Write the structure tokens for this entry.
Amino acid sequence: MQSVALIDYGSGNLRSAEKALRRAAEQLTTSVDILVTADPDRVAAADRLVLPGVGAFAACMNALAAREGLVEAMTAAVTRGAPFLGVCVGMQLLATRGLEFGETPGLGWIPGEVARLRPSDPAAKVPHMGWNALGDLDAGRPLLAGLGPTPHMYFTHSFAFAPADPAHVIATTDHGGRFTAAVARDNVMGVQFHPEKSQGPGLRLLQNFLETSA
């Protein structure tokens, strides 16, 4: 049985993420144990890790850092090759820094920065909330397998991650201009949208994460 650590650091969407992961796990032929935990030992030993997130970059990063040993445990798991998925602000925390309410250092696992959305179309409101089609999908990424060329996912955010290396962008979306919708660097992955709120396509993506190594 493989273990999946859903990291509990006070994020508001934790329970919906847990429910979606359990539904995705039901589609697999292998057994999956979903652990909602902030225990560094369990996180360090987990086969896979999911970091959810809603709210401000600084608040989420500070809450994560306040759990003694948790960031170090996450780092140890990622370093040994455990697949890691960041969701919404959980993806943004992968960046070098966030620029919400000043500058806050992130985990730095995928170089880049998180800055406020500035749509060129005045009709595109911020926060960006609702369904949007993904585009520019990296078809070779197992995380995106079976989603088709333009799957629709649910977004709710005001800031977006701009990786320093365009090769780390594996999907984009358009809201008055294109921005990053999903990233990947080796075994570290992230999505700006909420797969737990994205119905069939979101569950398929979570199933892909539970099945693949990168």
The radius of gyration is 16 Å. The chain has a mean pLDDT of 94. The first helix runs from residue 14 to 25. The chain has six helices and 13 strands.
